[in-house]
Amino acid sequence: MEASISTIHESLEGYLDKAFEMLGCAEDSRLKVLLKNPDRRIEVEIPLIRENGQMTVLHGYRVQHNSARGPFKGGLRYHPSVDLEHSEILASLMTWKSALLNLPYGGGKGGIQLNPKDFKPQELEVITKRYVEKMHMLIGPRIDIPAPDMGTGEREMSWIVDAYSKIYGHQPAVATGKNVQLGGIEGRREATGRGVATVTAWATEEEGISLENATVAIQGFGNVGSEAALHLKDMGARIVSVSDVRGAISRREGLDVKQLVKFLYERREYDSVVDCAREIACDSVSENSEAPLFHEVDILIPAALEGVIHSDNVDQVKARLIVEGANSPITLQADRSLDAKGKVVIPDIMANAGGVTVSYFEWCQNLQGLQWERDQVYLELDRWLKRAWDQLIKVKKKFKCSYREAAYYIAVDRVKSVMEMRGF
Ligand code: NAD
């Protein structure tokens, strides 16, 4: 059971309050109000006539948190839990993630409250295009640029480009995460998981943990979790436990994650890691999706949902290093408790920033009419991540603080300075 949305919200406010304190502006109530609250909250209704002739009305959302440093940027999620409050937290995280990476963006997030599995592709196309019809004056290459998130991918981004371009002329830069044929960038799909693995490697080096043969557990074997697993295995780690929404599998000697990816995503023979247990060597299969969180491992990567590690279960976490692949997987109280036990947490706004960084390259590519090679994308991705990582380590050492506190200090400082420069 995940923490409540209000607990996740309070956690983010707690991280921001700490940054205000470190920056010496804890008493500046005007700045705090501006940085904590979004610029704009949008809610739209999307009517759809189903195949049986019945009409259903879906709810779409977009929250635009802060655009001081550039256009709003962030994912579009299709999931039953999408609402304004979820979107508000995730939009705010995007502001801080973009600022930490020094990308010229603010933060946005949104989605449609639905389970994509309940709709046919042609219905999803109508829904996505209606969302754009209702939202087109509030998004755009210089206003707000959506990207894939849970439940959306290349297909939905292509529909957004189509609907938006019908109004404004060809505009591939309106969304990132598109198919390469439509102005997408090589390596975007792999970017977040690859970045998670890269940052994990730097964190192990910093913490004196050997990655060679280190044991890793991953909750969520989707885009982020599976790519992180593949890269960490290539770096010598053993992926001993993985899960998805249907359950978990584990193997002490290490799971064959390449085979898992083949069955789930290349051949699409199975829907869940649990079904793959028929094909690959495993020690155990369970229906407990949370199992990796509490596995006896060196490194834990929560890569599914928000708020999965909270005050009621934090004592069961055994990993020494926790790298946040998902957004906000750890509540403030749990974070403090992990810190008190000497466990190390690498925050989401650093760990999973590879995706938005490559989205930025895609946007630049579209605005300039260029097409980058995959090698160039990875070279630049590593360069941008490393620069942010080095700055984070410098601040962490200066303040003798946690990785998260250092990350928020840098991010809030950058947004605050630009807001003061521009005047508000
Ligand atoms: P995805 O839809 O590809 O995969 C999500 C995975 O989590 C799936 O395997 C799903 O079965 C699993 N899952 C869902 N509920 C679960 C549960 N209760 N227990 C265990 N597993 C569960 O999504 P994704 O793109 O991999 O995103 C995962 C997380 O990473 C999200 O929090 C997302 O916001 C964050 N994130 C994604 C990106 C990106 O570029 N895709 C970038 C930054 C952050």
Describe the 3D structure:
Among the domains are: 40-170, Leucine Dehydrogenase, chain A, domain 1 (Rossmann fold), CATH 3.40.50.10860; 190-351, Rossmann fold, CATH 3.40.50.720. The protein starts with a helix and ends with a helix. By secondary structure, the protein is an alpha/beta fold. The radius of gyration is 21 Å and the shape is globular. The chain has 14 helices and 12 strands. The protein binds nicotinamide-adenine-dinucleotide. Residues 148-150, 192, 219-225, 243-245, 289, 303-305, 325-327, 352, 355 line the site of nicotinamide-adenine-dinucleotide.
Features:
single chain, seven-stranded mixed sheet, binds nicotinamide-adenine-dinucleotide, 424 residues, Rossmann fold, 46% helix, five-stranded mixed sheet, 14 helices, alpha/beta, 12 strands
Concise summary:
With 424 residues, the protein is α/β, with parallel strands linked by helices.
The topology string of helices and strands comes to HHEEEHEHEHHEHEEHHEEEHEHHHH
- Beta percentage is 15-25%
Average of per-residue pLDDT values: 96
List segments where confidence is low: pLDDT < 50 over at least 5 consecutive residues: none
CATH superfamily of the domain at 190-351: NAD(P)-binding Rossmann-like Domain
Helix content: 40-55%
How big is the Rg? Answer: 21 Å
Strand order of the largest sheet: 9-8-7-6-10-11-12
Number of strands: 12
Per CATH, the class of the domain at 190-351 reads: Alpha Beta
The hetero molecules present are: nicotinamide-adenine-dinucleotide
Q: How would a crystallographer describe the biggest sheet?
A: 7 strands, mixed
